C-alpha cells in the first residue's frame, strides 16, 4: 500500500501516550442523541466535547450508507454519532493513538454503535472507498503533513462522495480550503461559526473558499 502518511503522525501525535490514564466522562447531546462517552488523558479533548467537533456534528446532513470514515477519531464522538445516525453504514474510525482507538471501540460498544470499526490507518483495506468522510483533522501536524494526510484519504472518496472537515479559522481553515480547491476538489464553506469553518469537499466541483464573518 502506498500510504505516504504512515509516518506522518509520529512527530506530534503519540502512538502510546505516556501520561497515566484517568478516564473522564463526556456528555454528547445533539441530533436527538444523549450519549455518555469516556475520554482519557493523552487523547484529544480530555473531559469535553471539542467545540469544532460539536459544530461539525450539528452541521452535517444525515450520513449516507456505505463505508464512512472518521479521520482522527480521538475518543470517538464523530464516528459514534455518525454510526448511530446511519446504522446500516460501516464507520471506520482511524487514529494513530492506540489509547484513542481503544476508547473509541469501548465507547461504541457501550452506546450500541456496533457498526464502528476502530483501527489504525493502515488497517483499512485498499479497496474500501468512502461515501462520506468526516474529520476534525490534526491540523497541528503542520501544513505539509496535513496536506499529505488529506490528499491520501480524500483520494479514497467515491466519485460522488463527500467530505466534511472542521477547522479553526485561526489555524488556517481558509488557506486549507484554497489549497483543496487548487488540488482540484470542489470546496464549499457550509458553516462559519465561533471561529470554525465547516468545509464540504467533493471531487471536482464548484468552489467557494473565500473568508467571511462568523454566522
Ligand atoms: C483534532 S483531533 C480530533 C479527535 C476527535 N475526532 C474529536 O473530534 O474529538 C485529531 C486526531 O487525529 C489523530 N491523528 C493524528 N495523526 C493522524 C494520522 N496520520 N492518521 C489518523 N489520525 C491521526 C490524532 O491522534 C487526534 O486524535
- The percentage of residues in β strands lies in 25-35%
> How does the overall form come out from the CA principal axes?
globular
CATH homologous superfamily identity: Vaccinia Virus protein VP39
Query: Could you tell me which ligands this complex binds, including any ions or cofactors?
Result: S-adenosylmethionine
Beginning-to-end CA distance, first to last residue? 42 Å
Would you tell me which CATH topology applies? Rossmann fold
Main sheet summary: 7 strands, mixed
> What is Rg?
16 Å
CATH class reads Alpha Beta
Strand order across the biggest sheet?
5-4-3-6-7-9-8
How many individual domains? Answer: 1
Low-confidence stretches: 1-12
- Quote the average pLDDT: 92
What's the total helix number?
Answer: 5
SS content category: alpha/beta
Give the topology, please:
Blueprint (H helix, E strand, L loop, with lengths): L23 E7 L2 E7 L11 H9 L7 E5 L5 H9 L4 E5 L3 H13 L5 E4 L10 E6 L7 H12 L2 E12 L4 H10 L2 E9 L2 E8 L12
The site of S-adenosylmethionine (SAM) has 24 residues, from helix 2.
Amino acid at each position: 500500500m502506498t500510504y505516504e502518511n504512515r509516518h506522518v503522525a509520529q512527530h506530534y501525535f503519540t502512538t502510546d501516550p505516556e501520561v497515566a490514564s484517568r478516564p473522564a466522562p463526556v456528555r454528547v447531546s445533539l441530533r436527538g442523541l444523549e450519549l455518555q462517552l469516556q475520554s482519557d488523558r493523552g487523547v484529544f479533548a480530555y473531559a469535553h466535547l471539542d467545540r469544532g467537533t460539536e459544530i461539525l456534528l450539528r452541521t452535517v446532513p444525515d450520513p449516507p450508507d456505505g463505508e464512512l470514515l472518521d479521520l482522527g477519531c480521538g475518543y470517538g464522538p464523530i464516528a459514534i454519532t455518525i454510526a448511530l445516525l446511519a446504522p446500516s453504514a460501516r464507520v471506520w474510525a482511524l487514529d494513530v493513538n492506540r489509547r484513542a482507538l481503544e476508547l473509541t471501540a469501548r465507547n461504541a460498544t457501550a452506546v450500541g454503535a456496533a457498526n464502528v470499526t476502530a483501527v489504525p490507518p493502515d488497517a483499512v483495506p485498499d479497496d474500501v472507498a468512502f461515501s462520506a468522510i468526516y474529520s476534525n483533522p490534526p491540523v497541528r501536524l503542520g501544513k505539509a503533513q496535513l496536506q499529505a494526510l488529506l490528499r491520501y484519504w480524500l483520494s479514497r472518496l467515491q466519485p460522488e462522495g463527500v467530505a466534511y472537515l472542521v477547522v479553526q479559522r485561526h489555524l488556517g481553515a481558509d488557506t486549507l480550503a484554497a489549497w483543496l480547491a487548487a488540488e482540484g476538489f470542489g470546496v464549499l464553506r457550509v458553516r462559519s461559526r465561533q471561529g470554525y469553518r465547516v468545509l464540504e469537499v467533493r471531487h471536482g466541483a464548484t468552489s467557494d473558499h473565500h473568508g467571511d464573518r462568523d454566522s
